[in-house]
Amino acid sequence: MKVCNPKSRYHLSIKRNYKVLEVGPGNYPHPRSNVLVEKFLDINYHRSGDVRVLKNQRLIAAEGEDLPFSDNSFDYTICSHVLEHVEDPVRFISEQTRVSPRGYIETPSIIGEYLMPKESHKWVLLEIDDKIVMYEKSKIGFNTCPDLGYLFLDYLPTTSIGYKILQRTNFGLTNVSYEWRENVDLLINPDSSYYMDFFTKPVGEIFCNKIFSKRSIADEAKMALWAVSDIFKYAFKSKILKIKS
């Protein structure tokens, strides 16, 4: 079941003593992960750089659909920007719920996929009514023209503080951010106009009211202040890390 929509992958309910598995970390592993599982060690088609392993992390070559661990081997599982690639989402997620009782899933939303499309992504996703809804691109006639990826992935994140604030105050705009416990409510290619309309019809009031939660002016102000603080905190950390390296 869904627990919450975290502000980011760094705001997860992971206790200090948790043993954490990460499936498909690629070149961007979560610093809290203890064990990393990667299917493609030598091919970067599904990621933007070579596999990276941080200090005190162990890397295992395996498939997400067939994890080499016994039931409940971990306390928490992280899966960030992987689900949109997989061949069998049901089996992939069932393996994560088998080896741990809780975890976090992050993927591009359909908005993020349209703005920053990737050929390696087989699926487009949204969270609707606390469910992760997935459609194959071929099922909905997905079109990736024009590709605005450089603008939203490279240029704005490195040049615009305003865009960074937008990312943090509206994290669900381009990503699905889903923390779960016990199981994940997953719908694959549902044959229902209710769900398909969110993926195929022009974005309107119904879409926005369903996908984005309304906030008061006071809450908006708090989020904006938090966003500015978070930006400077991570900028400071990055600078320190560069100095140390």
UniProtKB/TrEMBL annotation:
Annotated source species: Dyadobacter psychrotolerans
Any single GO BP term: methylation
Classification via InterPro entries: Methyltransf_11, SAM-dependent_MTases_sf
Pfam families associated with the record: Methyltransf_11
One annotated GO molecular function: S-adenosylmethionine-dependent methyltransferase activity
Keywords: Methyltransferase, Transferase
Residue ranges constituting the Methyltransferase type domain according to the UniProt record: 57-103
Protein name: Class I SAM-dependent methyltransferase
Leader sequence residues: none
